[in-house]
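Quick note —
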Amino acid sequence: MAVKVDLVRFAKRSGVGTQVVSHNLGEVPKAYLFWGGFLAADGFQAHIREWWGFSVGTVAAENRASYVHTTDAVATQDNRGGASALSCIKIISSVTPTIEGAAQISAESTTDFTLNWTTSTTNLPICFCLVIGGDEVTNASTVEKTWAIAAGNQSFTGVGFRPDLVIYLDGQDRTTSGDGTDYLTGIGVATDVGGAKQWLIVNSQDDGAGGSSGRHQRTDSMAGGMNVGGSAFLKRATFVSMDTDGWTWNVATAPATAYIFWALCLKFQNPSTNVNVGMVARATSGGGTNDVTTGFDTKGLWLHSVKSPTLDTFLTGMNIGRGGTDFTDEECYAFDSPEAATTDDNESIVTGKAIREMTSPSTTAAEADASVITNGFRLTWSTADANANRIHWIAFGQAAAAAAFPPRPVIINQAMHRAASW
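Predicted structure written out below.
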């Protein structure tokens, strides 16, 4: 009985066609979490081309992705974003936009998965993926739903099972899949394992002259998105319950339009020892550590930061740190876009670190390694500034192995032993 997680790193294929990516699960995966930018090697570079997505298999509609672009060193904000219902990876590199790559999973095996690149240029950005499987992951599904346009409880069905974990992916204020202007992103999560837990992080940047930007984080919501100026929520929902065929949330801020969103839903055989979510205020100096209790033998992490210690407050400028680990490999992506008259938009990737926070154009504000501890994980910060920024996490794992008992001593009847020796 196990939950298995493998972190893989690979360069995008050059040209359309299929690409086989190896994994170490030893069985067909149940779910995939993808993310990255537009860097072909570790380091920093100008412009932001953030993207992320998920998949649960080879059916086209099981692949979902969100993608954005913002241009560095221009006096007028120059952004594009979009959402794809048929790709787990979609990368753009300009405001036209130029589609650098779009892929969906077309085949799976116990040792690899195949990506079918329907669009692919000769640029080769690095892609990251947490591959999740094991017999304790019993069900996985992706769904497309729409926001209610009135406040109050909203229930969703059609998942096919009662989920233990729901990961929310914002549809970028669209009513259908496709490209759009502005930079509008949101990722949230909810679980009822060990009690209701949730978190949400959002970024926004207005396209055009005088465009403003913002970011926000909170732990009382599982879904949402800001207006294009980043100064208020356009939509927001709080977790209510997991249901027989889906979940219910409460729409605290209702959008005027029934925008789409996507969700990755997972069910586990032993939820209390398979999944947990939470947030931790990171250490504030290099060499500092955070010990986090998950309640089980942790096998993999997905980590997020908006580089701020402040909850429930609209902050100027955009920022993301997003990383993962299987405790053998660590990979992360980060970007920073401070609000300024002339933009200073930059991104970075690094291998060997589970999470990074950056300051444009090329400063590491904080980065950490992850390791397993009893019933949890530890973040060890090789670099950290003095801000106790919040790190949001999703942990996957299994029950810790029972301690082995020493062999019982063999007691010999001495009288019988003496008799037998004559």
